[in-house]
Amino acid sequence: MMNIFHRSALLFLICNSYYGIVKADPQNPTLSSKTVSNSRTEDIAQLNPAFIYTPMDVKLAVKRGELVEKKGRKIDWLINRNRQNPFWVRGNGGRSHDSYVWCSDLDGIFLSSEAYQAASLYTTDKQLQTLETTGAIVQQLEFTIHLTSVPHIARWIWQKNKKANPGDVTVIKFVLSDDHNHFFTATSDALSHVETKGSISFSGVTPVHSFSNVNVSGDYNYSATFNRTDFVPWTVAKPYYSANYHVYFPLFDKNGMPRIKSDVKKLTLHIITQTGELDANFTLNRKKKLM
Question: Out of 8, 87, 100, 207, which residue is the most buried by the measure of CB atoms under 10 Å away?
């Protein structure tokens, strides 16, 4: 219905995704099992392969971004590859079709987006060139969330009017879980959001039926009933509420051990609001083509 989340803000978050540079083992085409980041040794041997990019993976992701730009497509084609509409599991019901969740760290989207940006500006991204020879690992998993609560005006007698609720977009907590019942909470300093509100107009027509009877006397007496329907236009403005969030979950604990292990197939972002809970599912599938 509407999307008041500015694409430039989302693009900024995607293209500034923080990922680590990993040195490749010259005797092995895959990445080494250890890397040092922020003076901490991290073990990537057990890290889910969805977050490990070999030099070939990086090249394919970069090539994809360049081809998308060359074909004249908008960068939205890349950004929205894994966009999800969250669904209510508590509070309200159904899928929230006016809310979206993005994760730029899956399927090399952050690499392709940067390559797209460089190609559109006819420049060369030196950092991408480095990653094409060293490979990369994702240090933290980032999510961008756009929540909207809109009113609903009943158009049929069996429907009910529904007001927009600011509690639907006010998040209390973000929790990430995997399919092995491991739960991770975003730290408080990782949560940032922008709230907006406004009004949305609805319009339509209301049928008004009228009846009249006419009695005629003369050689023949008869009566007639006339039906008339007038359509009266109407317009009403109702408030809506929206909020944008950007949260991240570190993929390594303080001891350098990976949190999302190699046997994990699905991640679920739990968005706990004042009125209930929204969930968004993401599949970790390294067999998905980067091109």
Answer: 100
